[in-house]
Write a structure and sequence with these properties.
It contains 20 helices and five strands.
Length: about 400
């Protein structure tokens, strides 16, 4: 039935054959007990749509990835055997092979393919080194992971934004918080900013922070300073609070996620996990308290199209809950169910009454940010009279 449906779709005028889609259907047929139809689809795909050995090699790489993701490791290895017997020399084929082998957890085989690629004169990218290093890290081979990371410079790869963030993702894959902290500090010294992906995987690797976001209990921190304090007091990992503090010292991710114009300031949470979205919102509130606001303030969080379970807007639900606890006036837009919005006057009034956040940009994680009692009283009186004015 599945094969007939796929064949019917291929007859549509708008259909364009895709190696990835064909491999996915073949794997689905195999896992559903139709190995004959799966083999027939693979054979027809090669004979009808692929012109060169490099194209066939890329198809085998897609088959390796599709079959291994369905738990069909033996069949995936069969495709790898076929792939190794082919006379392919294309750079793309080697890059795809390395990716598929890493998806299968075969780090040493992927590294062998990388060496072969280099020996043929093809320049690898930081991405391939990162895949192999993460593959070693996930298997617990931290020594091998660091060896691959160190070999990037030998291959002539400069430590720029891409390479630095790939190394960070390697350490996060094995949840080595102390190494992540050291690497983040090194990036700051080199003035290399973490990317949104790095922001996601660093924060997602923090178990205490993940628990805070999952439980959303009454003691949920509503500012970055309180969050760091809570992590210091409850986390069993000595580096977790300092790691979050170090990540908060950079505003690069927040700057890219925030759009300012005369009409609106907008925080875009697309692409962020619930954990990262929570921390980013706390950072955002700290920033907009110190800025003159435009006519409208909004948070774009989507409607769950890219959630683990499609249609469950986890980021939106989190944003609503956190902003509600803050006493925020932002509410769901009647025109866009993935957007929380409020007018400037109401937001300004709310921010004036919302507690001023303690400073967390101090580079010393042990430095106290508490201010004298008298200063706090004068500051709150100033806020009160400013709202009357």
């Amino acid at each position: 039935m599945l094969l007939q449906f796929y064949e019917a779709v291929t007859q549509a005028r708008w259909f364009k054959w895709s190696s990835i889609h064909a491999a996915a259907v073949a794997a689905l047929l195999e896992v559903n007990g139709s190995p004959g139809e799966s083999r027939s689809l693979i054979s027809d795909s090669i004979s009808q749509h692929l012109q060169s050995t490099d194209e066939v090699a890329l198809f085998y790489c897609d088959l390796m990835a599709a079959f291994s993701s369905r738990g069909l490791k033996d069949r995936a290895m069969d495709f790898y055997t076929e792939l190794r017997s082919m006379p392919h020399t294309g750079r793309k084929a080697y890059m795809a092979m390395i990716k598929s082998l890493c998806l299968m957890g075969l780090a040493s085989e992927a590294e062998e393919a990388l060496r072969e690629m280099v020996s043929l004169g093809y320049q690898p990218e930081a991405f391939q080194f990162g895949l192999i290093a993460k593959c070693y890290g996930k298997s617990g081979s931290l020594v091998e992971m660091e060896r691959v990371i160190a070999s990037m410079s030998d291959a002539g790869i400069r430590l720029g934004t891409s390479a630095a963030n790939i190394v960070l993702s390697c350490y996060s894959s094995c949840r080595d918080h102390s190494k992540m902290l050291v690497w983040l500090k090194k990036m700051r010294k080199l003035r290399i900013a973490p990317t949104a992906k790095a922001y996601n995987f660093v924060l997602n690797s923090c178990p205490t922070l993940a628990l805070v976001v999952q439980e959303l209990d009454p003691s949920l921190p509503l500012s970055t300073a309180v969050l760091v304090k809570k992590l210091k007091s409850v986390s069993t990992l000595p580096s977790e609070a300092e790691l979050v503090h170090e990540l908060l010292a950079s505003s690069s991710v927040l700057d890219k996620a925030t759009e300012w114009s005369d009409a609106e300031v907008k925080l875009n949470l697309h692409g962020f996990s619930t954990i990262a979205a929570y921390v980013l919102m706390l950072q955002w509130v700290d920033v907009i308290k110190r800025r003159t606001l435009p006519l409208e303030v909004s948070v774009v969080c989507g409607i769950g199209k890219h959630s683990d379970v499609r249609g469950e807007p986890k980021v939106r639900e989190l944003a609503q809950e956190v902003l509600s606890r803050m006493g925020s006036p932002l509410r769901l837009s009647t025109r866009n169910k993935g957007r929380l919005v409020a007018k400037r006057d109401r937001v300004t009034q709310w921010l004036a009454s919302f507690p001023v956040p303690e400073e967390v940009t101090d580079k010393s994680p042990d430095a106290t940010s508490q201010q004298p009692f008298a200063f706090t009283i004068f500051r709150k009186l100033g806020q009160f009279f400013s709202t009357l004015v």
